[in-house]
Amino acid sequence: MSEFEDALTLRDGEFPGSYAVDISAGWTIGGGINGGLLLATMAKAMSDALGGRGHTEPLAVSAYYLSPTRPGLAMVETDIARQGGSSSTGSAALVQYADDGRREERIRAMGSFTDLSRLPTEATTRLTPPDLPPVEQCVSKDDAPAGSPVPDAPLLERTDVRFDPASAGWAMGQPSGRGLIQAYFRLADGQEPDPFVLLFACDALPPVSMDLGRYGWAPTIEFTVNVVARPAPGWLRIKHYTEHTAAGHFVEDCQVWDSEDTLVAQSRQLARMPREPKA
Amino acid sequence: MSEFEDALTLRDGEFPGSYAVDISAGWTIGGGINGGLLLATMAKAMSDALGGRGHTEPLAVSAYYLSPTRPGLAMVETDIARQGGSSSTGSAALVQYADDGRREERIRAMGSFTDLSRLPTEATTRLTPPDLPPVEQCVSKDDAPAGSPVPDAPLLERTDVRFDPASAGWAMGQPSGRGLIQAYFRLADGQEPDPFVLLFACDALPPVSMDLGRYGWAPTIEFTVNVVARPAPGWLRIKHYTEHTAAGHFVEDCQVWDSEDTLVAQSRQLARMPREPKA
To answer: What residue spans in chain B does CATH classification 2.40.160.210 cover?
Structure first.
């Protein structure tokens, strides 16, 4: 079983629709567990709770982040909203318990699930895949110079990210100010992408605020991913960018393209702009 | 009291955090009540439930649409997820009851609320306001020719929308195929915009699928609005567009700009592409 599948392995909880999951410290980045990995975990729980009609694949998933998730046991409490003909919709809360027994809700999410194989495959787009050099000309975290602002985090051992050198100045302490980070992405242990991996991939690159010269923690308020196709095997290409910063927040967009030049997922998150220029 | 304020007027429900609201048929369009008006109504309920810390204005609101809302009584059941220092987050369900007493959930939503006056006002953007001719050179529903595919709906009496002639071919049965509709927008009774009006404005224009030549009903799966500034009084300008259609759905983006050229709200929805070319 891959590390990613292991992370999404649920046990039945105490009540119908509740699940227990062990959150591994291996997915830690910045101040807590990666938000995309947790979104995928919650989506897996909603998929399981809703899946009776074959609606097991995420079509749209949204989450509001309430407090940092810690490694260890978590409960995902799901609730079915509607089971329809072509999609089913539910919600979920990811909950942990403090040492004193207090219930702490970490994330609240909703999602619609479908059977992508039963939807039309035709697509029309005005968007173009990120213009990246061949993967062997891109740079990985191992290429970062000493003293680089790239964080050293367990998550980076589980992902294989190759950054476009033309948008990697932020990793050398020279952010471009454009708010653009592009990269190839795959899971380090070789698991091929699927719709749940796409939920993670949309949040797997560093926040684009780093390319604006803000290296601090950028907590997510809201994050929505649309999965619009099953990904082909191979490298994913990710375009992560912001077009708008306002009210102390930034709107971060992400496109994920597969190895056959198909746009397979799009996401947007509203995140709080780090207050300090440097971490 | 304006028609919009009247629509958002809540009475206390039977339980703490639950509200009763009368849904007027005046907000009907297509197959039901406008989804943006209902999002604003649910946001008002969440704002009221969460508002103890002055976090009364929507910052991000997301909704999943489950079944068409009918005119008449509805209940909005809210739940507080977190009351924080700079924002508070909750969720809500909009519920109606069938003639046989069966509970029917119409919409499930989440949202984060803040005090926009306490957030930084600086903004940087790569986006530009829609390029519209002066409002008196734009066209209203009253200019639509006989036999126009523009629907005749009560909602259109409550909004004053002036379409850019350059992106209004769809209203004459000549869709451009670009998936772009731009317009000036205000409430017909003169109420000035506020953050709740922005939630409505993001869903107040016809679906851009009409400009793709698909005039049928385009049910929304998921809809998220980010409010990034309080709007100045006067006309709003709306750019409503799609860049991607796949898996039988389309991703619809919306930008709302105020009279001072500030981007005040951005939204995205995933909607099902109408199957028939003509309604």
So the answer is: 3-115, 139-272
- B130-158: average pLDDT: 88
Structure-block tokens of residue B193: 């915009």
What was the pLDDT predicted at B144? 82
Please tell me the distance in Å from B90's CA to the nearest CA on chain A.
9
The rounded distance, in Å, linking the Cα atoms of A178 and A271 is: 17
Q: Is the Cβ of A62 closer than 8 Å to some Cβ of chain B?
A: yes
pLDDT band for position B261 (cuts 50, 70, 90): very high
Q: What is the mean pLDDT of residues A14-42?
A: 94
- CB-based contact A246 B268, cutoff 8 Å: no
**Residue % of chain A over a pLDDT of 90:** 87
Count of pairs with CB atoms under 8 A, one residue in A, one in B:
149
When pLDDT is averaged across residues A198-222 and rounded to a whole number, the result is: 95
Q: What's the complex ipTM?
A: 0.96
Q: What is the overall mean pLDDT for chain A? A: 94
A228 contacts chain B (CB < 8 A): yes
Provide mean pLDDT across the span B2-28: 96
- A166 in reach of chain B (CB within 8 A): no
Residues of chain B contacting A228 with CB distance shorter than 8 Å? 244, 246-247, 249, 251
Cβ within 8 Å of B, A 107-126: 108, 110-112, 116, 119-126
What is the rounded average pLDDT of the residues A177-182?
96
Flag if B119 and A248 touch (Cβ within 8 Å): yes
Mean pLDDT score, A179-206: 97
> What CATH architecture applies to the domain B139-272?
Beta Barrel (2.40)
Q: Do B120 and A247 touch (CB under 8 A)?
A: yes
**Which class is B3-115 in CATH?**
mainly beta
CATH topology of domain A135-272: Porin (2.40.160)
Which regions of chain A carry the CATH code 2.40.160.210? 3-115, 135-272
**Residue B180: its chain A contacts at CB < 8 A?**
none
**Which residue in chain B has the smallest CA separation from A273?**
B120
Residue for token digits 């001072």? B260
Instruction: Identify the band that residue A278 occupies on the pLDDT scale cut at 50, 70 and 90.
Output: low
